[in-house]
């Protein structure tokens, strides 16, 4: 029987606490931000402005607000108008959107206070709510968050379910504490995250009403990416086009007699917490899957969906992936950036250097999931640019040895007026950073090619059902369900068995071809490319490292080999002397691999060999090469590379295939060079080979 209007009006109401979070990676391309403003931010705000009773929370990362204020002031003014009339409650967070648990306490406080002060100055609100970046929860952040003036924060219902809470109890808010500091927590409804805006508004209403309580205290939280409303595939036409989903949603919510829109601030002042909660270190389910090692991630995904098919509640409560910080294990490139940031954060910094540090703490570059993240070279470029500005302002010259990367092995850091260099003793005494202090570019910013779990799914449907079009389904697909275009032209998948650093020592059974170099199949005989060296000696200008290893044919040891590498950090250049000694007569081939990142497009950069200029995406092989040059407008000055003797030089562009919100991307990550030559040694004989990297020399 149909319910009458009088019955509906007397039935208990349910509150909808709605929030929108908008963020772009620090210094993302201007065209990306313009596109997001045009497709999502501006039409969303303009639509909501027409409905003054449609109340919601809003969080923009600080640097995005700064960009909008300068470049799209009309969008900035829309936020101000709705804030002034009390339609929006503005949330704070880390100004440059860091993972709070990944930065020091003083920076947690500083980043939050920086954004709160900006909001107060520009919109007249003192924020009490905090958007937690990527909903990555770690109770260690509570003291800093409370110290910064925050009273409540947003997490997922998944966090609570992982802690043993029943889903039906997550229709309000809870309180947690750390060291006696208390913070209120609102759990975001996963169901609402997947119905808004992807399903018809009626499905959201139905879900809200299912959670109504007789006392009228029930409230469900939605707080998710603003880019879902227009930027994600298919959403612009669905939300703002002929379908006009947003207008229908707003009118449906406002017109329903049992649904009440309320601000988080009003709900907190009106309703007591459901109780106390202690949550595990976690984020949303997908993040836990992405941070697993790739082979394990494939098994995890299969296992999760098998359990979910049999018992969804059990799968949600007990089947979990890893934690966000595991990205620092999965990707050494992320760890290098993160530990550079932590080292700089420990130094006394002025205001300009502190802001550069904050910019370098932006989270996007340090992980990878459905968005490009670490795989996007421009994000790594921007992170190094910011941190190198801090380095230039706060660093000091000299050579320093210590476990700066927290991996149990010493790193060597060298700073001159011209550059900053970092080398890993754990990874073959290889350079992984060489940043010009004039251009602030890390010329060694190359990403290693590695297997990702989604490589096994290329062209295969996702686990859920995927509507083919907007018209033939009751909604549209989220980016977690989209299938890559099978017609996309993707490069072959090759994987590297060592990091793509520089001064990698190869001992090879035969002279490599360009094909074998691209395929990372060098008929390796040595154990030096990915094994530790010991730091033997260090002074103010150079460092000596040594490894005693061997030459092998399968399991048979052909000879004991010792490699010594001396790095001399000169004012404008780095000289590397490689000395090889064998305990037996040997004949092999030695290769010195270097990997450089050339950030500009093929029109603005080139590689010069024997007077010939080649684009960075060129594969080549030359004989009798003693030097080559890399030129890029962003370098300011050419990078020149010299060898002591003429050798064969091979090169190829390092390409990766990575997942993105649009499907899959083939991305240039750097150019790999291999200098190689025959190496004949008598027992006890030492041979020395020298190389020189110089900025403009």
The Rg value, from CA coordinates, equals 28 Å
User: What is the residue-mean pLDDT, rounded to a whole number?
Assistant: 93
The total of beta strands comes to 25
Unreliable residue runs = 1-7, 463-472
Gross morphology: elongated
What's the number of helices? 20
How far is it from the N-terminal to the C-terminal residue, by CA?
Answer: 86 Å
Largest sheet: 12 strands, antiparallel
Category by helix and strand content: alpha+beta
Relative strand content: 25-35%
Fraction in helix: 25-40%
Structure overview:
The relative contact order is 0.09. By secondary structure, this protein is of the alpha+beta class. Strands 14, 15, 16, 17, 18, 19, 20, 21, 22, 23, 24 and 25 form a 12-stranded antiparallel sheet that branches. Mean pLDDT is 93; it is low at 1-7 and 463-472. It is elongated. 29% of the residues lie in helices and 29% in strands. It is built from 20 helices and 25 strands.
Secondary-structure blueprint of this entry?
Elements: H1 5-10, E1 14-22, H2 30-49, E2 56-60, H3 62-71, H4 73-84, E3 88-90, H5 105-123, E4 129-130, H6 142-147, E5 152-156, H7 157-162, E6 174-178, E7 181-188, H8 190-195, H9 201-210, E8 219-225, H10 235-240, H11 245-255, E9 259-261, H12 264-270, H13 285-290, H14 294-310, H15 312-318, H16 327-330, H17 332-345, H18 351-360, H19 377-394, E10 398-402, E11 411-415, E12 419-424, E13 430-436, E14 504-508, H20 514-518, E15 534-538, E16 542-553, E17 556-569, E18 573-582, E19 586-596, E20 605-609, E21 612-614, E22 620-632, E23 639-660, E24 663-681, E25 686-695
Parallel strand pairs: 1-2, 1-8, 1-9, 2-3, 4-5, 5-7
Antiparallel strand pairs: 6-7, 10-11, 11-12, 12-13, 14-19, 15-16, 16-17, 17-18, 18-25, 19-24, 20-21, 20-22, 22-23, 23-24, 23-25
Helix pairs in contact: 2-4, 3-4, 14-15, 17-19, 18-19
